[in-house]
Write a structure and sequence with these properties.
Order of helices and strands: HEHEEHEHEHEHHHEEEEEHHEEEEEEE
Oligomer: single chain
Bound molecules: zinc ion
Shape: elongated
CATH class of the largest domain: Alpha Beta
Number of strands: 18
Strand order of the largest sheet: 4-3-2-1-5-6
Helix content: 25-40%
Strand content: 15-25%
Number of domains: 2
Structural class: alpha+beta
Length: about 375
């Protein structure tokens, strides 16, 4: 009973109304418009719309202007949009999204309207140009909201932590049940059901299971192949929580591993640990990529590691920052990245280990690590 506040005597924290995070994000974008030389920005990229409004529907557009913002949806989503977002909701009537978008531009009185050039179709752009002739000019733009999304705020971090935890527990339980005679498809099904039961949402992406030489494929779709003694098994997958993705990969060998399997596994594990050890604010991404690549080269696997080291993760499974050779950026506190070194040997198999990491003020927070659980489910020699 002690934890329940008495009526009329709320806890001090409840006295200050907390501004919803989408409204804070939208405010930040509005502040940026002037510097970009824009009166308004038309946001059509679905994750950006969700990030700025809180609206979770599959279709919708947002016109952000300095005066105010309009969330444009069709009749299916009118009620949901009004419930989820504090933006003014505009419903598409009859003719379509372009007409409603033009009406929002007219109401905002914007003259220079940016649009996300990577997320507006050629047809939509042409139609809008016709509807806005003499009213407003469309200016190619993009990347403004993505720049805000790079740094995860408190509610995003909480969702990512939960998605990672559910994924890690489900993966650990699944791999400990894999045995010779199971099919790849059965392994995927087991993993997916466990995530759902633990409170996971939609899958981050269709689960990948590759056994034996199929583990060398970047994206092995699970098949009816029967897993045999001595096989490598790769499991890569994740769940979403409130739209935020988890992404992790673990490996196992059914039965006793060969010396070669142990050796390649140890190289990949060492590359992952070398990369994670460098994760902290202001660290150049190129140094992390080089560190992992250096380990692979020392193990004579330099050319077997060809898919890039990793990527940012958030409302999109793959987003900035990109951890690839030649990247010039640095890590910043609040970024969430997946690091996934691998060795892929055609005809033999592949080994990939993937960990989801939050860049903390003082270093890495491993979101997909379970205390006391190994990265690979067979004995791996300690590195010297
Ligand atoms: Zn990944
Ligand atoms: Zn993955």
């Amino acid at each position: 009973m002690a934890n329940i506040p008495e009526p009329g005597n709320p806890e001090p924290g409840n006295l200050v109304p907390v501004e919803p995070e989408p409204r804070i994000r939208l405010g930040r974008l509005q502040e940026r418009l002037q510097g970009l030389g824009l009166d308004a920005l038309l946001v059509t990229q679905p994750e950006n719309v969700r990030y700025l409004t809180g609206f979770t529907g599959s279709l919708g557009r947002l016109l952000v202007s300095r005066q105010g913002s309009y969330l444009i949806v069709d009749v299916r989503y009118r009620e949901q949009a009004a419930r989820e977002s504090s933006c003014q909701v505009m419903q598409v009537l009859g003719s379509g999204y372009e007409e409603a978008t033009a009406e929002a531009v007219r109401l905002s009185k914007a003259r220079r309207v940016g649009f996300e050039s990577g997320a507006l179709s050629y047809w939509s752009h042409g139609r809008l140009e016709v509807l806005l002739a003499g009213i407003a000019r469309l200016i190619p733009s993009g990347g403004e909201t993505e720049a805000l999304r790079l740094i995860k705020d408190a509610s995003e971090r909480a969702a990512l932590r939960r998605a990672a935890r559910i994924t890690a527990e489900a993966m650990d339980e699944t791999l400990s049940r894999v045995e010779a005679g199971m099919t790849e498809r059965e392994v995927a099904a087991e993993f997916e059901v466990r995530m759902r039961r633990k409170g996971g949402g939609m899958l981050s992406f269709p689960t990948l299971v590759g056994s034996a030489e199929r583990s060398a494929l970047a994206h092995p779709e699970p098949t009816d192949r029967v897993i045999a003694d001595g096989d490598l098994v790769l499991l890569d997958g994740g769940t979403t929580v409130e739209g935020y993705h988890a992404d992790m990969t673990r490996m196992l060998v059914v039965g006793t591993p060969t010396a070669r399997q142990q050796q390649v596994m140890e190289a990949v594990r060492e590359a992952l640990e070398a990369a994670i050890a460098l994760v902290r604010p202001s660290m150049p991404i190129s140094r992390i990529v080089k560190a992992a690549q250096g380990v692979m080269e020392r193990h004579d696997l330099g050319t077997a590691n060809s898919f890039g080291l990793g990527h940012g993760v958030g409302l999109a499974l793959h987003e900035e920052p990109w951890l690839v050779e030649g990247e010039v950026g640095v890590l910043q506190e609040g970024m969430v990245i997946a690091l996934e070194p691998g060795a892929y040997l055609e005809g033999w198999g592949g080994i990939r280990l993937e960990e989801l990491i939050l860049v903390g003020a003082r270093g890495p927070e491993r979101l997909t690590a379970l205390e006391g659980r190994p990265l690979a489910l067979f004995p791996v020699a300690k590195s010297c």
